[in-house]
Design goal:
Helix content: 25-40%
Radius of gyration: 18 Å
Distance between the termini: 36 Å
CATH superfamily: P-loop containing nucleotide triphosphate hydrolases
CATH class: Alpha Beta
Bound molecules: adenosine-5'-diphosphate, magnesium ion
CATH topology: Rossmann fold
Number of domains: 1
CATH architecture: 3-Layer(aba) Sandwich
Strand order of the largest sheet: 6-9-10-3-11-12
Largest sheet: 6 strands, mixed
Structural class: alpha/beta
Low-confidence stretches: none
Number of strands: 12
Shape: globular
Strand content: 25-35%
Number of helices: 8
């Protein structure tokens, strides 16, 4: 699915990622952890082609294609979905219209017909009801005046409707209450079909406990410093970074 080799990324002339390697196979869930400022967001922003991130060396292969050759919309149309730490508010753009446009762009890119309006309505109704998400969010403008929790719920609607192949979650659980975290976990778990892959950044044990990643990686000094299974997240939660040999660069 995704192979990252020797990735070097600069932000504003500062080297943030310094030769990072990561391989994600179909169906796998990878959790990325690390101290504040370690470069976790930089990694997923680079995969989704965020303009801040300047790749200076290395390769990323996605579905056997050179990912770095694809622009931001091509990456989305190829099935990469990124949930942002702080989604932008877009007043004046109806949320439902935005989502339907995104679905249709992806369909057109892949040579499929546009989604029928009735089918779109039926699907949004079904999916939101299944997970107890307020469908009224779709009638508002995109993220406009949405609370933190509403923005995250809206990203879940996007996930359910766009059905991406590679899902990048940047602290989707931050600021959410326990019930909302359960909804996030239910949606994510429902999407795990053995083919779809997930890279999730989180500090919180609760989401990991509900999703149970196959791999846990810790980024330090611009590279993957440690890789383990779910037990590494538990160890980290119990002992902290220093005890497992990771220097906190944010201090
Ligand atoms: P994390 O997500 O692990 O907390 P980030 O990837 O957001 O870390 O940031 C890594 C480093 O890059 C930090 O030192 C941060 O200050 C810096 N950085 C991130 N975004 C920018 C930006 N737009 N301009 C300048 N520096 C940035
Ligand atoms: Mg941070
Ligand atoms: Mg971050």
């Amino acid at each position: 699915m995704l192979k990252i080799e020797n990735l070097h990324v600069n932000i504003n002339e500062n080297e943030i990622l310094k030769g990072l390697d990561l391989e994600v196979k179909p169906g796998e869930v990878h959790a990325i952890m690390g101290t504040n400022g370690a470069g976790k967001s930089t990694l997923v922003k680079t995969i989704s082609a965020h303009y801040d991130c300047n790749v200076t060396d290395g390769n990323i292969t996605y579905k056997n294609k050179d990912l770095l050759e694809l622009d931001v919309s091509e990456r989305a149309n190829e099935g990469i979905f990124m949930s942002f730490q702080s989604p932008v508010e877009v007043p004046g753009v109806n949320n439902s219209y935005f989502l339907r446009t995104a679905i249709n762009e992806k369909r057109a890119y892949n040579g499929e017909d546009e989604i029928d309006t009735m089918e779109f309505l039926k699907l949004t109704k079904e999916e939101t009801a299944k997970f107890n998400i307020d469908r009224k969010l779709l009638q508002r403008d995109l993220n406009d005046g949405f609370s933190g929790g509403e923005k995250k719920r809206n990203e879940l609607i996007q996930l359910l409707m766009l059905k991406p192949d590679l899902i990048l979650l940047d602290e989707i659980d931050s600021g959410l209450d326990v019930d909302a975290i359960k909804i996030v976990a239910n949606v994510i778990n429902s999407m795990l079909d053995g083919k779809r892959s997930i890279i999730m950044i989180t500090h919180y044990d609760r989401l990991l406990e509900l999703i149970k990643p196959d791999f846990v990686h810790i980024i330090n000094d611009g590279k993957i410093a440690k890789t383990g299974d779910y037990s590494l997240a538990l160890e980290l939660d119990e002992k902290g970074y220093e005890a497992i040999g990771i220097k906190d660069e944010s201090n």
